[in-house]
């Protein structure tokens, strides 16, 4: 594994650390590729039930795309660079296991996109979220920010490209928790570990249903959920269904 991405295992949680602190963990092609490869490997790893993604250092989760890498590209090269990134976001957003982002500082541009592709986001007082695409004649996060914070708020944040600090992000639903700076990774691991303790098949189907149901009517969403319960997750017996739950309680 490239040094730009560190991988640590904490029981059933894999902790991925973007490791370019001198560049505020900016996303270059090497780091993008490392993320893509690791998520691919972890998808089939039955020993891992959830993922935590964070950034090295004390300043940034990720300050976005590496501008120094992009600056010399001509029009055709810029298009190819953008096209290469598209599968990276899809792999993380559609990853079959829950992903928790520990936003330990600046979360800007491509770093904001990475955070939005996670299922749960933990912030701290250093967290600053900003989608910076519009000033650079681009668009970003139009599909995954509005479901989190509402269309009106998302339009304002994206159109003004202004920074959003932790308290506002928490109130808007962007962040699930805000904790002291030195506790953000520990809190993310705590949440991920709680998630990873549940049956992987149920977590995978739950995540898929939430994503798919965003475009469905309520009756269609209920029908899709019932179908999963009756088929994909159907137990052999009621005793089998509750055996794991009762065992976890000590009954």
Structure, briefly:
It comes from Amycolatopsis acidicola. InterPro entries: ClpP/crotonase-like_dom_sf, Enoyl-CoA_hyd/isom_CS, Enoyl-CoA_hydra/iso. The protein contains 11 helices and 10 strands.
Largest beta sheet: strand ordering: 1-2-3-5-7-10
Percent of sequence in beta strands? 15-25%
Mean pLDDT: 87
Count of discrete structural domains: 2
Largest sheet, if any? 6 strands, mixed
SS-derived structural category: alpha/beta
Q: What kind of assembly state do the chains in view correspond to?
A: single chain
End-to-end separation in angstroms reads 43 Å
Radius of gyration over C-alpha positions, nearest whole angstrom: 19 Å
Following the backbone from N to C, one meets helices and strands in this order, namely EEHEEHHEEHEEHHEHEHHHH
What name does the CATH topology of the largest domain carry? 2-enoyl-CoA Hydratase, Chain A, domain 1
Low-confidence stretches: none
Helix content: 40-55%
CATH architecture assignment of the largest domain: Alpha-Beta Complex
CATH-assigned homologous superfamily of the largest domain: 2-enoyl-CoA Hydratase, Chain A, domain 1
Number of helices: 11
Counted beta strands: 10
Classified by CATH, the class of the largest domain is Alpha Beta
Write a structural description:
- The chain is α/β, with parallel strands linked by helices.
- It folds into two domains: 5-196, 2-enoyl-CoA Hydratase, Chain A, domain 1 (Alpha-Beta Complex); 200-249.
- The chain is built from eleven helices and ten strands.
- It has helices spanning 29-43, 67-70, 75-93, 110-116, 146-149, 151-160, 166-172, 184-196, 200-213, 218-232, 238-249; strands at 5-10, 13-18, 50-55, 60-62, 99-103, 106-108, 120-124, 128-130, 164-165, 177-179.
- The strands form two sheets. It has a six-stranded mixed β-sheet with strand order 1-2-3-5-7-10, sandwiched between helices.
- Helix 1 (29-43) packs parallel to helix 3 (75-93) and helix 9 (200-213) packs antiparallel against helix 10 (218-232).
- The protein is globular and about 55 Å long.
- The mean pLDDT is 87.
């Amino acid at each position: 594994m490239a040094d730009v991405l560190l991988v640590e295992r904490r029981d059933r949680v894999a902790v991925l650390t973007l490791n370019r602190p001198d560049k505020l963990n900016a996303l270059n092609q090497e780091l993008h590729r490392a993320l893509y490869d690791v998520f691919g490997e972890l998808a089939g790893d039955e020993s891992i039930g959830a993922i935590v993604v964070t950034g090295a250092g004390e300043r940034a989760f990720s300050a976005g795309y590496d501008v120094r890498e992009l600056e010399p590209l001509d029009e055709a090269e810029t298009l190819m660079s953008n096209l290469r990134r598209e599968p990276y976001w899809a792999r993380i957003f559609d990853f079959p296991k829950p992903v928790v982002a520990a936003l330990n500082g600046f979360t800007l541009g491509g770093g904001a996109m990475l955070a939005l592709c996670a299922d749960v986001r933990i912030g701290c007082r250093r967290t600053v979220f900003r989608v910076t695409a519009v000033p650079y004649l681009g668009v970003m996060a139009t599909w995954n920010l509005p479901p989190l914070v509402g269309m009106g708020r998302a339009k304002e944040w994206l159109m003004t490209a202004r920074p959003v600090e932790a308290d506002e992000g928490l109130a808007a639903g962007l962040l699930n928790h805000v904790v002291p700076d030195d506790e953000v990774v520990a809190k993310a691991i705590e949440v991920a570990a709680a998630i990873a303790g549940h049956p992987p098949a149920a977590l995978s189907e739950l995540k898929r249903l939430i994503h798919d149901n965003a475009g469905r009517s309520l009756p269609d969403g209920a029908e899709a959920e019932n179908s999963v319960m009756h088929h994909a997750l159907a137990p052999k017996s009621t005793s089998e269904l509750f055996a794991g739950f009762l065992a976890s309680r000590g009954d």
